[in-house]
């Protein structure tokens, strides 16, 4: 039976392959399009991320900005708990020099994101979603922990990018931009630690709410 982290990494790999294939089709189609036809298509709301081709035809994934914030908080709870438990389970001796110290910094960032989003939701009259119970599946394997960390961070960046278009309040959008920029730094660092390209693409690929929750869902046990 595969562990959770193996399942998670396989989901990431499959999603990346699907996105890469779709990008190739989009690129080929755009090369064939005439200038006027391309402008008309863009005016109709082409989406270059996964999901529906037309933003105008898509059913809104979020009811309002509070819904987006609670979605972000759900992901930040996941990440904050992951790092909090990880830095408690391992020591600096389990990793290459400097890695553990950086993991502690990331843990602090994620905890601050939770605090900020919780306050923003409460301040706007909403009810912040609570932290769940999780099983990340890395056991006592520090290499597995780093692999899951990279997968979580890369998925988190795509999740913020996917949700950004639904945010109505420009102030909330600005804060989301500040958070996703830091998440992208985390993702790049963890890609490098895992021996992968830190910045593999020219453009980030947004993921829909359903796609993100399908990937992250196996880690939420209660």
Q: Count up the helices.
A: 7
The oligomeric state of the chains shown is single chain
Number of domains as seen in the coordinates? 1
pLDDT averaged over residues:
82
Helix amount, in percent?
55-70%
Unreliable sequence segments: 1-5, 19-57
State which percent range the strand residues make up. Answer: under 5%
- The name of the CATH architecture is Up-down Bundle
Structural class: mainly alpha
Compute the number of strand runs: 0
Instruction: State Rg.
Output: 18 Å
The CATH superfamily turns out to be Ferritin, core subunit, four-helix bundle
What is the CATH class? Mainly Alpha
First-to-last CA distance: 21 Å
What is the fold named in CATH at topology level?
Answer: Ferritin
Order of helices and strands: HHHHHHH
Q: Mind summarizing the main beta sheet?
A: none
What characteristic shape results from the CA principal axes? globular
